[in-house]
Amino acid sequence: MLNLDLLILQEQGCRFCRIDYAQKGPTYKNWQISPYLVEQIPATGNVGVLTGEHSNGLLAVDFDGAWAWDEWERKVPYNLELLNTVTWTSWRPGRAQMGFMVPQEAWPLISTFKLTGPVDYSGKNQQLEFRWNGVQSVLPPSMHPDTHKPYEWVIAPSTVLIQELPLEVLEWMVSYAPPIETDDEGIEPVTIENLTVTQLDECERVLKKIKQHEPTLGYDDWSRVTWATVSHVGTEAGLVLMRHFWPEQSTGEYKKLLQGFNLQRSPKFGSLVHRATKHNAPTTTKSTIKKAFSGYQTHKLF
Fold first, then answer.
1. Is the separation of the CB atoms in 269 and 231 below 8 Å?
2. CA angle centred on 57, ends 178 and 115, rounded to 5°
């Protein structure tokens, strides 16, 4: 399916899935983890774009009914009129989707979720859905199975690049969405009051320096680094950072480690700074989080 708009999306990192003609979803196994290139999509079928990490951080916001647009204005702290990003529709009343790119550093913080409203003319509940990992969205020029008409671009990829998700929307998603399911039940949560992006940036930068000189950590060092990180940024953000730099070798390792966490006995952030600087690591490395949010003022992320 060599289509200019789809090829442009592909250049931005998007990947696709095959959908049988006049269907709204894939019919083959493991499609959620089987990204396709445009040229691998049959010309006679429908095509969907994988949302989330497989498409370089693509978030699709699905407005399913007139209620969804009103709900955005009620709940999301960003003016719809300021959005100028790739948008497509089935042309059914109130239906459209917008695509946004999410900075990689924020990927672990978000998940697919939806807000559900009243039933509309079709007999189905209207929804405002934020589509991330494990989900796909049907794209033009696919045929809609109910209207038997093609999806169409409202704002095509050939006219505008996918806009980066505004920071205000990202912060709202992180604070509003249901907690991401993990294997962390049973861990006493540590909450840091007034945690800011600046603090997260500082912690990420120090851990990055440690990782440069200590790609692997022995158990005792791993324990100390984990406890110090959690004591500085809290359980949720601390686990995101630690799993990024030192992923679990088996499920539940961090859960087991933090079940014995004691904030009073824990090493503090100063021990991380000392560990990072004792290797004479460069002090000018820019944080990837700071780069991702360049141009924005410091906001609270949690």
1. yes
2. 30
Which runs of consecutive H residues, i.e. helices, occur in the chain? Answer: 4-11, 66-75, 167-176, 197-213, 219-233, 235-245, 253-258, 269-277, 288-292
- Preceding peptide of 166 cis, ω within 30°: no
* CA 180 to each of CA 173, 177, 193, 199, 281: distance values in angstroms, whole numbers, following the listed order: 12, 8, 20, 22, 34
| Nearest one of 76, 150, 119, 106 to 241, comparing CA atoms | 106
- Flag the least confident range among 17-26, 116-125, 188-197, 211-220: 188-197
Angle (nearest 5°) at CA 128 between 61 and 51: 30
Tokens of residue 282, six digits: 């460069």
- Residue 146 · residue 66 · CB < 8 Å: no
Measured distance CA(242)–CA(222) in Å, rounded = 9
Give every CB contact of residue 128 below 8 A, 6+ residues apart in sequence. Answer: 61, 62, 63, 64, 67, 68, 71, 72, 114, 115, 117
Distance from the first to the final alpha carbon of the chain: 42
Order of all β-strands in the sheet with 136-138: 16-19, 46-50, 136-138
Say yes or no to pLDDT of 10 above 90. Answer: yes
8 A C-beta contact, residue 128 and residue 64: yes
Domain limits of the chain?
Answer: 4-165, 197-292
